[in-house]
Design the sequence.
């Protein structure tokens, strides 16, 4: 089968990156970062997929059909946790920036004050 | 650098990155055609070796349990980081929170849904090694129930029913139980976090040995961590009135 599922991941990554580059708002930037990170979930799940496969749960599994890759699914779980952690910290930083400068626009945070 | 220069700079770099990505993607094996050696091995032997039917959970809490310890500590650090960042400059600390009244329909509906959510979370954790689910997923669902307390009753009910001391202790207990089990196994003369408990019979709740214990430790830690993060962000969101805080 054609590599279209991987292309979905590529599009998500580049779209998220463009969002981060053009962002004028920290909250928007955090969402774009999440979009970028979701491309890694798609990549991992795609790498593990098998044609005619079944979920890697052996309870009630049909005999004879292969299981899709359980390793990348476990990795995706780690990836989701990291994504949530990063999102929480970025949002906390955005709140902090808003408190200090009254703005969530990265361009308004030019000067460093001691 | 203004937005325009930034966009101009991004266009060639983004195009180069996209081309690089496409080149890499073209070199990958065809979608759905190949599987790595570890995947083949685990798909064939995990259930027989560990007596659990959810193969990803056996990887998360047994074959790669050390990585999951790191993952838990990331979450632990994140809670500390969020609290430090938000608490360090909170000005309205001595003010008391005010609750905006919600509609009766919202209160009743969400109150009905809270026990359902808690049950769903506990079910997801407890059957995590048999059917899809696990400590991380169920923990987040349980944590969401605490957020629903805020939606149903208001901020003060939310804080009263999830006392910070208790949730802090639960988070620490979850993380400590994970590390403690690993050290206990080490003290018993096996590898760190090796699965040495009796494996039980496949397909029942009493199966998997240490997988079940680590699953519950993670569930506790994740639900408590989620609630603590909600606490910090809600403290920012909730309107305050002048006057002394209650806790």
Sequence:
């Amino acid at each position: 089968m054609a590599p279209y599922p991987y292309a979905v991941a590529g599009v998500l990554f580049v779209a998220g990156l463009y969002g981060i580059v053009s962002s004028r708002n920290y909250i928007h930037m955090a969402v774009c970062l999440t979009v970028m990170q979701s491309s890694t979930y798609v990549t991992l799940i795609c790498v593990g997929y098998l044609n005619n496969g079944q979920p890697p749960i052996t309870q009630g599994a049909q005999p004879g059909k292969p299981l899709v890759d359980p390793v990348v699914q476990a990795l995706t779980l780690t990836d989701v946790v990291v994504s949530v952690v990063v999102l929480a910290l970025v949002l906390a930083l955005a709140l902090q920036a808003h408190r200090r400068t009254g703005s969530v626009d990265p361009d308004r945070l030019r000067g460093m004050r001691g | 650098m203004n937005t325009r220069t930034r966009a101009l700079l991004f266009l060639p770099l983004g195009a180069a990155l996209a081309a690089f990505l496409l080149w890499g993607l073209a070199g990958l094996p065809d979608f759905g055609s190949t599987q790595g050696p570890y995947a083949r091995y685990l798909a064939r032997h995990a259930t027989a070796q560990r007596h659990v039917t959810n193969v990803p959970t056996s990887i998360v809490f047994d074959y790669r349990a050390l990585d999951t310890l790191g993952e838990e500590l990331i979450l632990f650090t994140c809670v500390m980081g969020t609290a430090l960042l938000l608490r360090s400059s909170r000005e309205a600390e001595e003010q008391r929170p005010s609750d905006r009244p919600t509609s009766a329909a919202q209160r009743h509906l969400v109150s009905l849904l809270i026990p359902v959510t808690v049950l769903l979370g506990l079910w997801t954790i407890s059957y995590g090694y048999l059917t899809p689910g696990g400590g991380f997923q169920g923990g987040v669902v349980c944590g969401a129930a605490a957020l629903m307390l805020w939606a149903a009753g208001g901020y003060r009910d939310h804080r009263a029913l999830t006392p910070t001391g208790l949730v802090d202790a639960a988070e620490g207990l979850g993380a400590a139980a994970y590390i403690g089990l690993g050290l206990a196994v080490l003290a018993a003369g096996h590898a760190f976090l090796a699965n040495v408990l009796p494996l039980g019979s496949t397909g029942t709740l009493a199966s998997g040995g240490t997988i079940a214990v680590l699953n519950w430790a993670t569930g506790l830690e994740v639900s408590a961590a989620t609630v603590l993060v909600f606490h910090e962000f809600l403290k920012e969101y909730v309107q305050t009135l002048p006057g002394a805080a209650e806790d």
Summary: The first helix of chain B runs from residue 3 to 26. Strands of chain B lie at 96-97, 240-241. Chain B touches chain A through 55 residues (CB under 8 Å). Chain B is about 70% helix and 0% strand.
